[in-house]
Amino acid sequence: MLSATRRTSNAPLGGLPALAVVVVLLGTGCIAPPAGERLTLATTTSVRDSGLLDFLLPDFEAREHADVAVVAVGSGQALEIARRGDADAVLVHSPSAEHAFLADGEAVARWQIMWNYFAIIGPDTDPAGVRHATNATDAFSRIAANQSVFISRGDNSGTNTKELALWAAAELNTSTFGSWYKSIGQGMAATLHTAYELDGYTLSDEGTYWSLPDIGPNATAKPGLLLLLGGLAHPSPDLKNTYSVLQLNATRHPNIKADLAQRFALWLTSNETALKIAAYNVSGHQLFFPDPRRT
To answer: Which architecture, in CATH terms, is 7-115+241-294?
Structure first.
C-alpha cells in the first residue's frame, strides 16, 4: 500500500493565482484510480485554516491510495481555477458564485455538504456596539457610523462576498469609506491577525476564529478579539455559511481526473464522512455541521 502524502500550498497553479461553502469538480465514471494518483483540490482557506482538511483527508487518501494536493485561496479564485480546468476538485462557500458557475454550464449539479455561521469579530471594548445589534446588517451600520477599524479580506472569497453583501444590505458602499476600512487582500487567518493587531472588527467564519487561540479569548500578548455576533453562541439567520459540492461538466474539462474526483465527492457526502465532520472540534467547539443534500 502506497504511503500517501498531502501538499498544501498557496503557490500559483498553472500560471493562475494560488487557490480560501463548496464546489467539487467532478466527472463521471466509477473506475478505481491507480495507486499513487494525485487529486488537486482547489479550496477555500477556511476549511484549511480550521484544520478540517487535515482531519478528514487521511481517510480518503488511505481508502483510495491517492494523494490530495491542497491549494487554498478565496472561493472566487478557486472557481476561476476550476473554470480553466486546472484543478480536479474545488471546495468553496460562495452560493451566489456557485449558482453562476452552474448557470454558465461549468457544473451540472450542486450538493450542500455542511454549514456553520459567519461571525462578526471585534475587541471587547466594542466601540460600535455590535453586541447590541439586532442582526448583521445593523451591526455593519453601527461600525460604519462609528468609523471603527474594519479589516476586509478583499480577496473575492466567499467571506469577502458575504461581507460586501452585508454592506450593500445596509445601503453602504465601501468605495466611499475612509481609512478606517482596510481591504488587505489576504486569507482569513491573516485578516484575523491584522484585526487583532489593530483592535478592529472583521467578518470571519467561526471555524478559523476558534482555530487561532493566539487572537481570541485566551490571547496573551494583549486582550483578544471576541465573537460579538453570529456563530453558534449568537446566531443570526443572515450569517449562515454553507459549503457545497458541485459536479463539473466533464465535457468542458476532459483532462481532469474524473473518476478520482467522483470518488472524492461520494466520500465527502457519505454518512461516514458526515459523522467525522460532526466530530471535529477545536477546544470543545464544533466547527462544522454536516447536512449533505442536493440543493
So the answer is: 3-Layer(aba) Sandwich (3.40)
